[in-house]
Design goal:
mainly alpha; F1FO ATP Synthase; about 0% strand
Length: about 150
């Protein structure tokens, strides 16, 4: 298990190191194929380490006594209900992010031309962010019914 975590740490460190190197020396870029292959190798290494840690970690966690006792309390219906409760928050957050992207870029463009429009752009961004808050409120209300 330790070697899997070390493999994932090496992959993350290599990716961060490559990013720092490319930030400091952008003109010394290697061939694009070499860069792509290196990043793909790091991604593959990280993915294999993550899959191995999940497979080995689940086995160790389920063998523990407190976890085995707690898992017996959650039924299939309760588990599906909890997933259904989390769904509105996740979908609302994704929708808010999709709305805030264009609104934020347009707001920055307007503020660059007319700084006095700052207050209005905040209102528009707040309206888009309200979508995520509505999803969170719905999840909290549904969690109270469970």
């Amino acid at each position: 298990m330790t070697w899997l975590i070390a493999m994932m740490g090496f992959s993350v460190a290599a990716t961060i190191g490559a990013g720092i190197w490319l930030e400091l020396k952008p003109r010394a870029l290697p061939a694009s194929a070499v860069l792509k292959n290196g990043l793909l190798a790091n991604l593959l290494l990280f993915g294999l380490g993550l899959a191995g840690a999940m497979l080995l970690g689940v086995q160790e966690a389920m063998a523990a006594e407190p976890v085995a006792g707690a898992a017996a309390e959650i039924t299939l219906g309760k588990g599906l209900a909890l997933l259904g409760i989390g769904l509105p928050t996740g979908l609302a957050a994704i929708a808010a992010a999709m709305a805030l992207g264009p609104i934020g870029s347009a707001a920055l463009a307007v503020i660059a031309e007319k700084p006095e429009m700052f207050g209005r752009t905040l209102v528009y961004m707040g309206l888009a962010e309200g979508i995520a808050i509505y999803g969170l409120v719905m999840s909290i209300l549904m969690l109270g019914k469970l």
